[in-house]
Amino acid sequence: MNKIAEHLKRLDMSQRELADQVRTTEVSISRYISGVRVPKVYTAIRIARALKANVYDVFPEEDKR
């Protein structure tokens, strides 16, 4: 699971503000947060940059063992 919501809370940022910075829709951000959709790599990088975080901190690897 991603940690977008945690980073939004840390920065006191809304989904709308993140969407504007990433140049996507608030609906897409909501779907990324809920896990309904997975962002493409370049979108994930833009999300991490907007959240002032490392992409691996926002989207940690899942242990598939």
Structure description:
The protein is an all-alpha fold and 65 residues long. It contains five helices and no strands. Helix 2 crosses helix 4 (41-50). The mean pLDDT is 95.
Q: Helical region count? A: 5
Q: Topology as H/E string?
A: HHHHH
> What's the β-strand tally?
0
Coarse structural class:
mainly alpha
Q: Tell me which oligomeric state these chains represent.
A: single chain
C-alpha-based Rg, rounded: 11 Å
How much strand? under 5%
* Helix percentage: 55-70%
The main β sheet shows up as:
none
Distance between the termini: 16 Å
The shape, in one word, is globular
The low-confidence runs, each spanning 5 or more residues with pLDDT under 50, are none
Average pLDDT metric: 95
Summary tags:
single chain, 65 residues, mainly alpha, globular
Structure described in brief:
The protein is mainly alpha-helical. The chain has helices spanning 4-11, 15-22, 26-34, 41-50, 55-58.
Can you lay out the helices and strands and say which pair or pack?
Blueprint: H1 4-11, H2 15-22, H3 26-34, H4 41-50, H5 55-58
Helix pairs in contact: 2-3, 2-4
